[in-house]
Every structure is written in C-alpha cells, then in structure tokens.
Design brief:
The protein is α/β, with parallel strands linked by helices. The protein is built from 13 helices and 13 strands. The strands form two sheets. Strands 3-2-1-4-5-6-7 form a seven-stranded parallel sheet, sandwiched between helices. Strand 1, helix 1 (15-30) and strand 2 (34-41) form a beta-alpha-beta unit. The chain is globular.
C-alpha cells in the first residue's frame, strides 16, 4: 500500500508538518505502508522536523510559490497527478484544508482515494483567503474527512451530513519519552508555547500575567515561539512592567528538554484544532490551564483534575486559576500525575492503528 501525505512542508514553524512527520515516521517504521511525503514547495533551507529514512520525500515545486499562483499558471493539478502516477500512490492525504482542492482534483484525475485532514477549528475562516471554500470542496468530494476532536466531528456531521467523517486525535510524539523527567513540585516557572501570531492571543496572555504574577512572588513566565508579533508583544510586556517576570525565549531546538523545567503550562488561544503543546506539557506531567475554546483543550483537560478550563471571555477566571495553582504545591503535584495519565490516551501506536485501519478500509 502506497500512501502519500501532501502538505506545505515539514519546517519547524508549522504544527501540521510536525504531527504529519510523527505519523509518517511511525507508519513507515511499521513496514506495513510505503509512506510518501510530498511538500507543496521546497523549504529545506528552514529548520525541518526529522523524517524517517524509510519515507520517500519529494517536493512539488523547487521554489516557494503561492497556491493561487500555482493554480493560475495551470500546472498544479497536472504536477501532482504526475507525481501520484509515477509513484503508484493508492491513497493521498491532504494535510490542511488549503490543499483540499488541489489534492482532490489530482486524486480524481488519477482514480485514487483521497482523504482530507482538517487541522483547525472547522468554523475558522480567517487563516487565509478561500479557507472555507477549500474546506467545503474537500468535505464534499473526499473519500474521508479526518477531524481532530469529537466537537469538530459534530460540526462536520451537522454541516456535511452526507460526507464520510471520521475522528482521529493527533498523537503524542514518542520522542518526548526520551526527554521527560520527574516533576519538580517546587518549581516557580510557567511556560507557554506557540507562534507569535494573532490566533494564539499573547496580548491577552500578557494582560493575564500582569494580573496574576504580582500575586505570585518569585514566579516567572517564559514564552517559546517566534512570529510577526514579537516586537509588538515585547513592547507591551515592557509597558506592563513585566520585563523582569516574562521572557520571550524565541524558537528553540531543544524544547522537549525544557518542559520538565516548568511548573505548569498556560494557553490563551482564540481557537485551536488540537493543541500539541498541551499534549507535550501533559506528557511531561505539567498541569494545564487554557481557555475553553470550541475545539481542542476540553478533550485534553479535565477541569479540576489535570488542569483548569476557563470560560473564553473571562480573563479574571484564568487569573484566579493561575494564582490558585501557583499557591498550592500539593494541587500541582496531584494534577501532574493526572496529566501523565492523560498523555497515555494519545500514544502514537494507538493513534496510528486507527489510521492503518482507515487506509485498509478505503482499499477494500
């Protein structure tokens, strides 16, 4: 069986590339599937996630190019169809709705099965132009739609009742197990992780930090990630007088080694698909605090057990949760144990078995 995952690429600035590489590496190592990774354009100059040598990796374009330009020039579908035919691909997976139209058209041209993998909140239409049109195209014309959460599945079932929709969680990276350590119940450091872009709402995080940190003497807060809002956020941090308590750590290559140095993880996103950073924190035994956005966190966090879910429009509720957690060493230790238990629900062998069963079903 030859299966191709088609996405933007596997650079370290994209969550889709990360989870696709985890899944592809495991499937290739299993020996049951020949895995092909086709990136839309060649971005090897950037830092990339590790790819198993058993995966066949290629690029549709040898330079950066927009999807719009590729379609307007008229050769995008032909290129992908030729790639499918030359490699005898049986199933192609569109990783992210932006690639749905191109993937579906090329798959139909070649007469193979196509899977559309939704990686964000299915109601979100603001990441790029024609996002929802691409979603509709794929949802209605694919052989299967993969949704990351049960709440996302419900949205698809309501909106696309005739489509073949399936829910499969993202897996925890097995590499994390090599980096985890014992939980430090006396640690007084908070961690947040994410690209510095509007979706992650680090503006709101800084306002929450300004309210909570004065009530937690000796505590500091580190933010890992890069993005277009870095300068703006640093200025706001300084204006709030947080320069000695909040630190922007940038993009680092050893993040897995650093999680264990923190007391708990906080996420303030406006929306999510299925947040990998929470899973990574859970695998390291970190209690989790997040806004209860429509899809994602509430299928990882059990409120009051392994962390706290806060109403999306209630910053004061999150401030109270952070302060309460910071002041209660025993509560953090209890939640740490529950977080590790939570992470085991998303182990890669369990998740990849669902994918293998899906592929086998498609080719019956």
């Amino acid at each position: 069986m030859n299966v191709c995952f088609f996405c933007r690429g596997f650079t370290a600035n994209g969550g889709i590339g990360r989870v696709t590489s985890i899944l592809a590496n495991y499937l290739a190592e299993s020996g049951k599937i020949n895995v092909f990774l086709c990136s839309f354009s060649d971005e090897r100059a950037q830092e990339t996630y590790p790819i198993n040598d058993k995966c066949h990796q290629e690029y549709l374009y040898d330079r950066r190019i927009t999807m719009t330009k590729a379609f307007l020039m008229g050769h995008a579908v032909k290129r992908l169809a030729n790639y499918i035919a030359c490699n005898d691909i049986d199933i192609i997976v569109s990783c992210g709705v932006i690639y749905n139209p191109l993937t579906v058209l090329a798959a139909r041209k070649c007469g193979i099965k196509v899977v559309c993998w939704e990686h964000t909140n299915p109601t979100n239409k603001s990441d790029y132009r024609f996002q929802d049109q691409s979603r509709v195209f794929g949802a209605k014309l694919s052989d299967r739609n993969i949704l990351l959460t049960h709440s996302a599945l419900e949205i698809y079932q309501h909106r696309f009742p005739r489509a073949r929709n399936v829910q499969i969680y993202n897996p925890v990276d097995p590499e994390l197990s090599r980096h985890t350590g014992n939980y430090d119940g006396e640690c007084h450091k908070i961690i947040s992780v994410g690209r510095l872009r509007p979706q992650k709402n680090f503006d709101r995080l800084l306002e929450i930090a300004a309210e909570s940190l004065p009530k937690l003497p000796g505590w500091t807060w580190d933010i890992f990630g890069e993005g277009e809002l870095h300068e703006h956020l640093q200025k706001k941090c300084d204006a709030l007088g947080l320069q000695d308590r909040v630190c922007f750590m940038g993009q680092v290559g050893d993040l897995y080694d650093r999680y264990k140095d923190y007391a708990f993880i906080v996420m303030t996103s406006d929306y999510e698909g299925f947040p990998m950073t929470l899973l990574e924190g859970a695998a390291n035994g970190l209690p989790m605090v997040s806004f209860d956005v429509p899809t994602g966190p509430n299928e990882i966090i059990q409120n009051g057990t392994n962390g706290f879910l806060c109403s999306q429009d209630r910053m004061d509720e999150m401030v109270s949760a952070i302060v309460a957690l910071g002041m209660d060493d025993d509560k953090r230790r209890d939640m740490s144990r529950e977080s590790r238990s939570t992470a085991r629900r998303f182990e890669v062998d369990r998740i990849c078995q669902q994918w293998m069963e899906l592929f086998e079903e498609l080719l019956k």
